[in-house]
Amino acid sequence: MRHVISNANGWLSILAVVLFSSAGDVLLSRAMKQIGDLGQLRARRGLIFVASVILQNRYFLLGVACMGMAFYSLLFGLSWNDVSLIGPAAASLTFVANAFAARIFLHERVDRRRWTAALLVATGVVIMAL
Predict the structure, then answer these.
(1) For residues 59, 64, 69 and 75, what is the CA-based torsion angle, rounded to 10 degrees?
(2) Exposed, middle or buried: residue 3 (CB in 10 Å: 0-12, 13-18, 19+)?
(3) How many domains does one find in the chain?
(4) Model pTM score
(5) Is the pLDDT of residue 41 over 70?
């Protein structure tokens, strides 16, 4: 029974890592697209100005918070299950979720090669989970 609870908690933590990490990636991408080229901005206005602009962007702050929750969820998962399951599953499923999130929320063009890669990654996670 303890093994079943451990596996359930492990997979729930993987799900949390994937959701929080993907949300963080989308939010950070949106923030950086709003802010623009940091190199050019730094050259024109200085490093302190760039830091203040970044830290005032709500998408950036929410993205960092989501990434922090993803890290906490990873630590939770590692306390319940093996790193050989949690690490690869969380990383690979995040790759798949990022492809979907980029297409849906950022309206990015995700080509056939990336969808194929996402499908192969998801297949690998299924094989690993068996």
Answers:
(1) 160
(2) exposed
(3) 1
(4) 0.84
(5) yes
